[in-house]
Task: structure prediction
Amino acid sequence: MELGMKHRLIFGSLFIAMLLGLIYADEHFATAEFFTRAPEALSALGVLSLGGLIVTLILLALVILATREMTLLLRGAGHEPLGGWPIVVNVALLLIPFVAANGYPADPAALHARDWMLTTAAVVIAFVGTAIGVAARRTTDHAMAAIGATLLGILYVGLLAPFIIRIRVFGPPGASWLLLYYIGVVKFCDMGAYFTGRAIGRTKLIEWLSPKKTIEGLAGGVTASVVVAVVIPMIVRSLASPESPVQTLFPTPFRAAIFGVAMALVGHAGDLLESLFKRDAKAKDSAAAIPAFGGVLDIIDSPLLTAPLAYWILLSWPK
Result:
């Protein structure tokens, strides 16, 4: 077996096992007293519980690393973005849904309004802070490019990633498993496209951007996503008791098939978008943190772009 594929299988399996364990822990501890009653110091800040804490902390670490990788890619492409400021803003943007959802008891509409109000304020602060940071360099050379590059790193990572948290903290009981379902549908597209492309891929998809991607691989990825999206809810419903809340947690078969197609196509677009960034920076991978995969951005590029759409389909569409 080729070394690269062996690494993909090993680390891919470990990643899935770790993700299952973390999602289980997040769901299991969601009802524990420590998580349902925040420490007094946080309560004073308006955080009354810690629902979704484990998922938030994991994604927080990934966002910090991904923001750093994005900054390096931008610099590799000849831009001069601010260094630490995007990390500060993206951390704040990621924490906002967690803080809003675990705040003072109110109706869901009020909690969502608090989330969007804080997010809007953070985006405005991000823009103003970026302009001030670039102006502090005391030169007008490439100032607009530096502002644009800095904001791209903030919008790409910091504005998209929080939708993953929103699926968890604003979702119904058992939303941790809904989050796992969403990530599984997206990542199985990547796996299906990779193995189908290697086996029968002949027709290039966008050769100038990603020479190894093929139309056959994309078809295999879409098929894998649809199968996973439809089959997992059927299996879960057959195993759960009739009165279990999981019976209404996942989409109906037709809606699940639409969800699978949407996640596959948008996820593939997310992969191509990151390829565009890497090609501009003359980089093969966003980093070399994970053998055979590259950097954190190479792992989360598909979930990043699909997260807002997944949030809308899974939580906002009528059942």
